[in-house]
Specification:
The chain is α/β, with parallel strands linked by helices. It has helices at residues 29-42, 67-80, 100-109, 123-129, 135-147, 166-178, 196-203, 211-227, 246-252, 279-288, 300-311, 320-327, 329-344, 359-362, 365-372; strands at residues 2-8, 52-59, 83-93, 113-119, 153-159, 183-188, 230-234, 237-240, 256-260, 265-267, 271-275, 293-297, 318-319, 348-351, 354-357. The strands form three sheets. A nine-stranded mixed beta sheet has the order 7-8-6-5-4-3-2-1-9, with helices on both faces.
Length: 375
């Protein structure tokens, strides 16, 4: 099993919290598409001819691409890779891009999963984040997607926003769970350096939500999701009827993936590779050969850390027998030693050789992960 991630770096406007690589210079689309076609051909052997079971269009805002532009990308992918007939093909989208006609076009192209960036159901918070849609559009577009034939829909929400009340957060969750969606990704707001939110926080013109309020919102998320029949299969991801994101689950389970486009990352179980985060440098580098990426070969410590980092955050947890077999007794014993204090506090669970986070551990997951890794 292998997956392909395609980074579409274009946005119509920048959200004030986002630190992913993006540009509002839409005039660069043709250069980008030309470069993407070239990279897809150059790297056709990266996955060693493994079948592609997932394709994920991320960004940026992939839904800024027109149907004809998406068709060009699919032509390149099908020309150079073996795409499984039942492959999960996901497109991230902004609600205001998803017109009924565009939704029908996406479905006809073979896209079978949408990840819709709603983020909030209060117009005041959407405006603060510089989102382009309103709450009414967000709800309607989910219904339009179902009418267009989509039956695998995910939505994104953000909690921990400045001035977001627990009542507003409950209302947003209620609206999601009443909609015909199968998946929810819910993330706590992070203040990334270089974003307007970070700048305003440092200037004191924006006030961070208190830790107690953030914890209350996270606990509310877990409780309301469970009541609505959504399983928490990863710290920030919830699914009905085991409709997990196959693409993201493959990341967490250590599968190979190829990243195409500026800033995209790749992993072949030996090396990590990442492309330059700049459209024009990416295109120019491709024309010059191999001047558009960096890479590193992973040693045993890095492979161990990667396994801990990705697995501990999921329902599948860390398999101690795998750690012993794959990395050796030294790593196994180190892990057992490090989890001792968290077992005593009930933050982690060790059952049948599988280590996972308890409810209490979810709140300090970053601390636990850092303590289990080898620095």
């Amino acid at each position: 099993m292998a997956g392909i991630y395609i980074h579409i770096p274009f946005c119509r406007q920048k959200c004030y919290y986002c630190d992913f690589y993006k540009t509002v210079n839409i005039s660069l689309k043709q250069k980008f598409l030309s470069g993407l076609d070239k990279e897809a051909k150059l790297r056709k052997n990266y996955l060693e001819k493994e079948s592609i079971e997932t394709i994920y269009f991320g960004g940026g805002t992939p839904s800024v691409l027109e149907t004809a532009e998406l068709e060009l990308i699919f032509e390149a992918l099908f020309a150079h890779y073996k795409i499984e007939r039942d492959a999960e093909i996901t497109l991230e989208a902004n609600p205001d891009d998803l017109t009924p006609d565009y939704l029908r076009d996406l479905k006809s192209l073979g896209i079978n999963r949408l990840s819709i960036g709603i983020q909030a159901f209060q117009d005041e918070h959407l405006k603060k984040m510089n989102r382009r849609h309103n709450a009414q559009q967000a709800e309607q577009v989910v219904l339009n997607a179902v009418n267009a034939g989509f039956n695998n829909l995910s939505v994104d929400l953000i909690y921990g926003l400045p001035n977001l009340t627990i009542e507003q957060w409950k209302a947003s969750l209620n609206r999601v769970f009443q909609l015909p969606v199968q998946h929810l990704s819910a993330y706590h707001l992070t203040y990334h350096e270089g974003t307007p939110f970070y700048t305003w926080l440092k200037k004191g013109t924006l006030k961070e939500l208190s830790e107690d309020d953030s914890v209350a919102q996270f606990n509310t998320l877990i409780d309301r999701a469970e009541t609505a029949g959504f399983e928490q299969y990863e710290i920030s991801n919830f699914a009905r009827n085991k409709m997990y994101s196959r693409h993201n689950s493959a990341y967490w389970l250590g599968q190979k993936y190829l990243g195409l486009g500026p800033s995209a990352h790749s992993y072949d179980r030996v090396k990590r590779r990442w492309n330059v985060a700049h459209v024009e440098s990416y295109v120019q580098g491709l024309s010059e050969g191999d001047h558009y990426f960096e890479e590193e070969e992973l040693g045993t410590d890095e492979h161990y850390n990667e396994y801990i980092l990705t697995r501990i955050r999921t329902k599948w947890g860390v398999d101690l027998s795998f750690v012993r077999q794959q990395f050796g007794t030294e790593y196994h014993d180190y892990l057992l030693k490090q989890i001792g204090k968290y077992q005593k506090t009930g933050s982690v669970i060790l059952r049948d050789g599988i280590l996972s986070l308890a409810r209490e551990g979810l709140l300090i997951s970053d601390e636990i992960m850092s303590q289990l890794m080898i620095i």
